[in-house]
Batch of 2 targets.
Target 1
Amino acid sequence: MDLITTRVGFVAVLLFQFCSLPSANLVFQVHHTFAGSKRPLTQFKAHDSGRHRRILSAVDLPLGGDGSPTSAALYFTKIQIGTPPKDYHVQVDTGSDLLWINCAGCEKCPKKSDLGISLALYNPEASSSAKTVNCDQDICTSTLSDPSNDCKAGMYCSYAVKYGDGSSTAGYFVRDNVQLDRVSGNLQTTFINGSIAFGCGSQQSGELGSSQQALDGILGFGQANSSMLSQLASANKVKKIFSHCLDGSQGGGIFAIGEVVQPTVQTTPMIPEAHYNVELKDIEVGGEVLQLPTDIFDVGEKRGTIIDSGTTLTYLPDLVYKQVIEKIDAAQPTIKSHIVEQQFTCYKYSGNVDEGFPIIKFHFENSLTLKVYPHQYFFEVQDDDWCVGFQDSDLQSQGGKEITLLGDLVLSDKLVTYDLEKKTIGWVEYNCSSSIKVKDEESGKQYMMGAHNLSPAGRHATTSTGILFFILAFVISLY
Ligand SMILES: *[C@@H]1O[C@H](CO)[C@@H](O)[C@H](O)[C@H]1NC(C)=O
Ligand SMILES: *[C@@H]1O[C@H](CO)[C@@H](O)[C@H](O)[C@H]1NC(C)=O
Ligand SMILES: *[C@@H]1O[C@H](CO)[C@@H](O)[C@H](O)[C@H]1NC(C)=O
């Protein structure tokens, strides 16, 4: 998801009678949404605090969901939080920085989900490891875009986040234990345990309150210090590297924290920006390079192209969008396109879309190419009715900047690696139902890590139009 705004502030409001809590730790549990495999109950002694040893585990985050705008339209994972640990299903989102979970007592939190998972509210009072986070603590002050003087002793650290689709969440920070699956052998995991601060969501609005794609929260994989990845990395538990491989046809896939040694990916530099931005050079449709102004994808002034696993569709500047659609149109001169839900260009087509429509190639700095087949940019809304998963970002920008953003659909069926240490993003076409090899930094050993699909019934059948979901989850700005 692309976050529009994040606000961190201070609240004196005691949403929960935290003061009466003994010092409690909240534990995040990570569950396999995909596989439902049993984890060995071996307890991993993660912390050698005496020597501050770097453990740097590879972590397996089980994936569920899929990228189709007509079914789940999102990918999620299962984590375990608290003592005793409880399962929470959260959307994985490279477009935002914060982990937050719907909390007990929350207003307008969804009660049920059409994703086939049961929802859970996190209750800090029910976790013996939960702790409050006050506004003068580092996690709060470093997340603030504009640290003010409003913080007074004993006040909680509050936050508010607004995503690109207009939905929002607000609440306050808590600290608790999160439990994840450390890769400990070929297709084997044990627990890794870490203490992290995260958002306890008390108010949701927009799509986040609907039951259709409802989850317990969002796990932001952004670069900010507030992200779970940054917190685990600063506790020397993991390297700041993660990868995803979203299976576009089966749903589920692979989500790993740590170094992937197989397959190897070709990379492009990450542009220093709030999101994961890279430099798009040009676009080729069916072998023809689009004729565009040279500065259309310029990187200065907050441009560049956002890579966002939390957004379903791809957003292109008006001029680019029109040319892409024109070229797609030209491939089938006898079929007249129609518009669905005022925004999607669709075609009645009974053949194999890969044979009837052009391949689109996005070319990036350092000669990295993202090759997108027609079945990856089209989604079927009804039998033989195919819609293009691209949007004109001019129509979404509400007077703001025209963004270029690549979402789930075009990122699927590739292993995409975000290396925050080397400041690169890379990918390679890959079978996301197969396995990858990750490195355990402690032993130097390489282990196979398999795909998961936490979605109970696999991918849902295509639904009729009128229920197209799409998620635009990136934070637009801080306020
Ligand atoms: C984020 O963390 C790093 C390393 O701990 C630190 O150097 C940096 O100042 C922090 N950034 C912010 C904005 O607090
Ligand atoms: C997680 O770590 C804490 C502190 O190190 C420990 O007390 C707790 O038992 C661990 N939880 C699990 C489930 O391993
Ligand atoms: C992808 O890998 C899975 C598991 O190894 C295998 O069953 C499947 O046939 C592969 N798909 C393709 C297209 O090669």
Target 2
Amino acid sequence: MIDTFQNTLAYAKKLDEQDELRKFRSEFHIPKQKNGEEHIYLCGNSLGLQPKRTQKYIQQELNDWANLGVEGHTDAQHPWMPYHEFLSESMAKIVGAKPKEVVVMNTLTTNLHLMMVSFYQPTSKRYKIVIEADAFPSDKYAVESQLKFHNIDPKDGLILWKPRQEDKLCHVEDLEQIIHEQGDEIALLMIGNTNYYSGQFYNMHKITQLGHKHGMLVGFDLAHGVGNIQPNLHEVGADFAVWCTYKYLNSGPGSLGGCFVHERHANNKNLKRFVGWWGHNKATRFNMRHEFDPISGAEGWQLSNPPILSMAAIRASLAVFDEAGFKNIRTKSKKITSYLEFLVDEINHEKINIITPRNPNERGCQLSMQVKDADKNLFDVLTEKGVVADWREPDVIRIAPAPLYNSYQDVFNFVELLKSLL
Ligand SMILES: *Cc1c(COP(=O)(O)O)cnc(C)c1O
């Protein structure tokens, strides 16, 4: 594929014409610059754009609330009582799970805590947790606080899976080495499936097998993977996973998170968990007098009745994903990211080093580029010229062409700008 790419605007336009998903760009609001031109928005890894239909979906709920009041729980066009169930099937497809294994609830870090309450049960022998050294700060804080909650000093209980100096990537062989040395003491592998910084997508199947073979539980944070890469959670066999919906899932700032609990844990009533009434058996939930009886599957971890307005935005976004088809999205993702890679490689190699793996199966649509001798000034000028991207100190730009709304021309125009500034 890469050999046939061309470094011309005409070629980028041709790729857009051939793009089977091109019509979906018009399903989104593309933010505009002060001069009225559209931004080159390459920041879907941080906040996905708003689907135009979202407003209609939310308005419907506002109307039903205005017209029905409390009766909306049962009489709204999409009744609020079972509203979260309307999301499960589409969400399950996106993460490769059975509908019963997923639920939309709370937010990412909250879900991570709830999952660790159930799936991190340290004993005096087996109490350590492995995370990536470069894990997202919230995940690290959450894991450290869980250790402390169980009176374990993170200095002893937290093991960092470190990227190698030479390529800044995490290698499964190094994780194997950690397990070889301390396997008997490790209770949980808690790994991001796509690293937020490097864009590296890990071999989840291998990691899960490795953990299970040595008696550990295995959980994943899909924040930068969901809607980007198919994690095949059921098949991979992860014990649990958590994610947010405001990055590649385009469901609005601070929108709700998702949670996966593997079917093998669906009916385990002995698992410790923090509970609330929304996780209770639906048949008797409103009797309000029964002992807690968890719903079978991921729904059994719900706490509260959910915020419908936020869920309406998720429904709208999932409808777009359903129409586009996740396989098609991933196919375009690989191609548009490879095109970005091709164009960046045409720039002087000495100046830009792509940290993200070169193998398309080991990454999603994000490329993290280290720019030699750059300071934030370069990035600020890019921003001034209409590029929306993400800068990480000291010298890394993260660029994520989202296949649903980014065009090959976006990618071409971005690289032209970058080239002119270097
Ligand atoms: C975005 C992100 C978060 C954010 O957590 P919230 O609870 O949604 O604020 C956490 N972890 C990772 C890996 C992320 O990428």
